[in-house]
Amino acid sequence: MFVDSHCHPDLPPLAGREEDMLAAMNDARVGHALAVSVNLERFPAILALAERHPHIFASVGVHPEETDVREAEAAELVRLAAHPRIVAIGETGLDYYWHKDAPEWQRNRFRTHIHAARDARLPLIIHCRNAFADTLAILREEGAREIGGVYHCFTGDVAYAEKVLDALDFYISFSGIVSFKNAAALKEVARMVPENRLLIETDAPYLAPVPHRGKPNQPAWVIHVAEELARLRQTSVEAIARASRENFFRLFARATPVAA
Prior knowledge:
This protein is of the alpha/beta class. The chain has one domain (about 1-250): Metal-dependent hydrolases (TIM Barrel, Alpha-Beta Barrel). The chain contains 9 helices and 8 strands. It has helices at about 20-25, 45-50, 75-80, 105-120, 130-140, 160-170, 185-190, 220-235, 235-250, and strands spanning about 1-5, 30-35, 55-60, 85-95, 125-130, 150, 170-175, 200. An 8-stranded parallel sheet has the order 1-2-3-4-5-6-7-8. The longest helix is centred in the middle third of the chain and has 17 residues, at about 105-120.
């Protein structure tokens, strides 16, 4: 059974197609998924989905790209994270692609999430785009290694991956990008990440993997990420499924696996 460690089923076009999404997951042997929060306005929809389905888990947080949304104080994040279906804080981090001036508010929001994760004793889900040095520095400064986390949709190179693994002991999650022909540097990362630090995800509805590139993504297609990792690492798809599943439930310790 596969686990999609990062998706957004509350966003269009997945929103409103819950039964279709779940049926496709079942057909593809995707037994669990983590529905990741991007803002507090949509958090109730994420939580309600996790409450309806024991094999769907949820996180709480405000994405670094979200600007015209309500900010969250650490105390509020901790309060919301007390719900038993919440298994992580995030997604959070830094995005200097969309915010090229590297605004201080973004770094402050990131620190708030790390403080909340430490207080809640929950792992972090990290978004990092064009902000590799600052993301690593803030995580180290705020003691994030103590609680753990994952760099979702990893896009760094081998040198940065080594820093993430050595300095933070975080997990590294691969999305459909690893299946793209122009992702040579990321494919090298996929070959070197230790088996016990590897996760797979879709980031649905974004970043559909080959052979569905360009279409709206869905959790069922995480199998194609596993297939590409198996090819790159010269192992079986079943081995990738098993390792990534074990890693998921080790990292997100509050999540309880549902029997197939």
